[in-house]
């Protein structure tokens, strides 16, 4: 009567007392749903419900498509990557995973590919770490490129072999999981046919009472029950239909079979002991500090409960109510936990919306200089840092708010790049103009037409001052060339003027002597 874990994590159900001669007390279902990215449907323990079918966790995983190749590996230099957003959808478990080097990540992916059935949680963890490493690698390449004197607009990232291998491994893992899930789907259809055959055999047993030795019939019945319990995977849409049909004929068997009281009482007593143990286990779970873990453990207990046979009528309601009471308490804690998460997510949505509004409110007409842009870049990078520190938002807003944020960031940095591109063209033109002035000054520096040339030199200097900045690497060179030509001319003029003054002084002294 022991079982494995295979309750649907998104729906809590408990069945009627299995194989009982009389129906269970009618218990009203109470269902509540928590609409959060990580919440699951919470349903008070009710009796009847689903059968002991395959782990619905596996069935849920079939809906998940790992678009591993769609990760944003060509992100802009300042905006957050799509992997950050992927992280926001990864689940409610906030325990930080250890960070690995790219070599360790690729090694982990190789190991995952070799596993018989790679688990979604591990795939998500290493996929997110892989793209985070890829983003850091590209950022490092960009910083090295800029440090070497390259222009930001000219940067093109290269992909190291390990990252190429990592992408290939992720793709192969996704294909492997798809093949496994396809095989499981085929197995589910086969299992439906097997369960229908078991139901038909139990039905025949109920129609052949008294025609053969009862012990043989009873052992055949127990064998069919064991075979039923061993069949796990079936389509979720067929669970209730098959269970109800199976339970119907099981109850008929117990009602109609001329079983002696010794067998019957032994089964009832044994089943009561097992269900009492489950009640005690459920009551201990109420002391579990991790409500999410307690909830998932409770699903396993409910699965075991469904596979245990009936108890006597006098004990049935009491043992069921005890188990239901413990289950309800855990469910309420679980629901309260996710309601708190939902409240926090609503608050996070407001914070992220405010950051989007800040980005969208930037007045680009007031950003005219390099200093203006540098100051504004600092503000935007601070906004991006705040964004990364904010937690999850409600699932239905997740993509929408991120697209809004990403669009505002992209527009800002695209505008910044356009400004610097325009500025670079302007600086190149300024360099050409200043080079022409240098050539004019150099052509005039040896002139001895002091008055005319002085005036021209002054005009050249005025024109020089009116021209804007040149590319940084030419600033000193072009200035030294220009000032050298100007200084040479004015130094020669000074020498000439000084010599002329001395001659005039001598002539004046000579005239004084004559007079």
Give a description of the structure.
The chain is mostly helical and 515 residues long. The chain has a domain of 94 residues. It contains 14 helices and 2 strands; from the N terminus they run E-E-H-H-H-H-H-H-H-H-H-H-H-H-H-H. Strands 1-2 form a two-stranded antiparallel ribbon. It is rod-shaped, with a radius of gyration of 41 Å. The N terminus is likely disordered.
Average pLDDT: 76
| Class by SSE composition | mainly alpha
Distance between the termini: 144 Å
Strand content: under 5%
Helices and strands in order, then pairings?
Layout (H helix, E strand, L loop, with lengths): L30 E2 L9 E2 L12 H6 L20 H7 L13 H13 L5 H28 L13 H47 L6 H17 L8 H18 L4 H25 L5 H17 L5 H48 L9 H20 L5 H50 L5 H17 L8 H40 L1
Antiparallel strand pairs: 1-2
Helix pairs in contact: 3-4, 3-5, 4-5, 5-6, 5-7, 8-9, 8-10, 9-10, 10-11, 10-12, 11-12, 12-13, 12-14
